[in-house]
Automatic annotation (TrEMBL):
Keywords for this protein: Cell membrane, Membrane, Molybdenum, Sulfate transport, Transmembrane, Transmembrane helix, Transport
NCBIfam families: Mo_ABC_porter (TIGR01581), modB_ABC (TIGR02141)
Pfam families, A to Z: BPD_transp_1
GO molecular function (one): molybdate ion transmembrane transporter activity
Described purpose of this protein according to its UniProt entry: Part of the binding-protein-dependent transport system for molybdenum; probably responsible for the translocation of the substrate across the membrane. Part of the ABC transporter complex CysAWTP (TC 3.A.1.6.1) involved in sulfate/thiosulfate import. Probably responsible for the translocation of the substrate across the membrane.
Location in the cell: Cell membrane; Membrane
GO cellular component: plasma membrane
Annotated source species: Rhodococcus wratislaviensis (Tsukamurella wratislaviensis)
Main localization (coarse): membrane
Family according to the record: Belongs to the binding-protein-dependent transport system permease family. CysTW subfamily.
Membrane disposition: Multi-pass membrane protein
Transmembrane segments: 12-33, 53-77, 89-111, 123-150, 179-200, 234-257
Protein's name according to its UniProt entry: Molybdenum transport system permease
Complex and partners: The complex is composed of two ATP-binding proteins (CysA), two transmembrane proteins (CysT and CysW) and a solute-binding protein (CysP).
Amino acid sequence: MKVPSGLPDWIFVPAAVGGLFVVLPLFAMLASVDWTRFFELVTSESSLAALELSLRTAAASTALCILLGVPMAAVLSRSSFRGLDVLRSLVLLPLVLPPVVGGIALLYTFGRKGLIGQHLEVAGIHIAFTTTAVVLAQTFVALPFLVVSLEGSLRTAGRRYEHAAATLGASPTTVFRRVTLPLVLPGLVSGSVLAFARALGEFGATLTFAGSLQGVTRTLPLEIYLQRETDADAAVALSLVLVVVAVVIVVGSRGWASRAAL
């Protein structure tokens, strides 16, 4: 028996158009793949190196996002002080900044003559145009995704259980570790997946701040861009690999998050 949605019939038309707008280009790309050379294209030395680097740096940047983003989301959702709205706006700024602008900002911060980079250079620490620069660029653009997701979960969860634990004598650290984090675990997982997916697809900030050195800073999106200029079939095949990896991660994590919420 069909369960009424409670929605007006007309609303399904633009919803379907929006769905097609997202899905149709993916099917068009799928239809243009040269399946006779697919395995050869995606297993070339440069392709495998780019994929391995992308997965490694995206995992590192996601870990950094969790390390920094969880405290940030907690402060934004649980604190109240003057300038909080301004702070939230600044934290979320990378969501609306063009990635290349983020790359330039990072370059002028951690580059050889940057605000911090010039002091690091004296100590013999080089960041720009290294794998570390890739991780920092990915973290810069991905961090807001985790913060937004987790802050929403923290606000939805409320504070009654935290107040109850504090009343029973638990320290703030114990409350946060034993009560708050388990309550928002699905939101943390969703935010981490969004951050990983955004880091995996990062292009502009990486190219500007880290460059494109094979095996060092050339991630899969950069490899796809370069292949597009010389071998369109390889670019399409690698794009499909990136889409499949992203879909597997998102679908798998959503299932895990749903089970964690039960």
